[in-house]
Amino acid sequence: MDEEPELDLLLAGTVFFDLVFTGLPHEPRPGTEVWTEGMGSSPGGIANLAVAASRLGLRTALASGFGDDLYADWLWGVLRDQERIDLSYSRRHPGEHTPVTVALSYDDDRAFVTHGHGWPTPTGEMLADPPRTRAVLVDLGDQGVRAETWWRRAAADGALVFATAGWDPAEQWDPRILEDLAGCHAFVPNAVEAMGYTRTASVDAALDALAERVPLAIVTQGRAGVSAIDTSTSERASVPAVPVAAIDTTGAGDVFAAAVVLGTLSGWPLRKRLAFAALCSALAVTQVGGSLAAPGWGDVADWWREHGSPDDGDPAARDLAERYSFLPDCLRGVETPRVRRAEATIARFSDAG
């Protein structure tokens, strides 16, 4: 009998040191200075997804390059020691510095300033002998990722491949990405991406087209909610977004994807998976800082305590509680520790433990 895979989720990509500024009164203009209401520092890039998955209890490993500067020391400590992410497939590179992204959040939009570089050790070398895992998640919008073979080897060994595509700045929507979905279990684009890649004019039409290529097609629509088709279970479902006061949307899509992976590996019905993922991503945007804004089970429990027994005179609140009436079963027996949030500056190393 084959042994159970040692991991639930295997990831590879670049980890950035993220500085997130929130509450900008307007976008920066040349020759001016803008003061913001908030700031947070956190691991970014692929770390957004890794932290979100680990906080939901998925056994998560990450293959990435790290430099040897103070940023890298802090990132390594936070991810390995605080967030319990397996970094045994990652590499430290003497003499290399850490990629950095500055995110500026204002109104309902964001802007980014990034400096980075490639690493001396390619992903294929770090994952020359990948561990057995129940799932992987890859960004097919990255041509380098599409050319890599580690995730296809993982799929051949039984892993479910969850794919995203990312935003195409030229809005050309390369149709070859749809061809690369062969062998993937799920594809999770947003509405504009889904219609762009499928050359369709509606979310429903895009879903139908994507469902012909992957067993699980999910299209996110922001405040309009999310819709999906799972042909492996013959389910089709849509759920609305959870109303919250958003502070920072950095990493919300990664939190959504991690929750979908959890629900799929747990064998949940499609509507339950979508509702849980919508809740997790909503909780994430109420905090500052990308990866460290990701909710843990304690945050889910807190939300349910606040919303699970609404006033009978509020129909919307009663509908929300009914939609999430499955949460007590999910929370039964799970650990609900407090999780650490992004701080305005780099925390002391002793705080990472």
Question: Beta-strand percentage?
Answer: 15-25%
What is the helix/strand order? EEEHEEHEEEHEHHEHEHHEEEHHHHH
On the 0 to 100 scale, the average pLDDT is 91
Helix % is 25-40%
> Which class of secondary structure composition applies to the elements?
alpha/beta
Number of helices: 13
**Considering the protein shown, what is the CATH homologous superfamily of the largest domain?**
Ribokinase
The profile of the biggest β sheet is: 8 strands, mixed
Largest beta sheet: strand ordering? 4-1-9-10-11-12-13-14
Number of strands: 14
**CATH topology assignment of the largest domain:** UDP-N-acetylmuramoyl-L-alanine:D-glutamate ligase
CATH architecture of the largest domain: 3-Layer(aba) Sandwich
3D structure, described in words:
The chain has 353 residues and is an alpha/beta fold. It folds into two domains: 7-295, UDP-N-acetylmuramoyl-L-alanine:D-glutamate ligase; 299-334, no CATH class. It is 32% helix and 21% strand. It is globular and about 60 Å long.
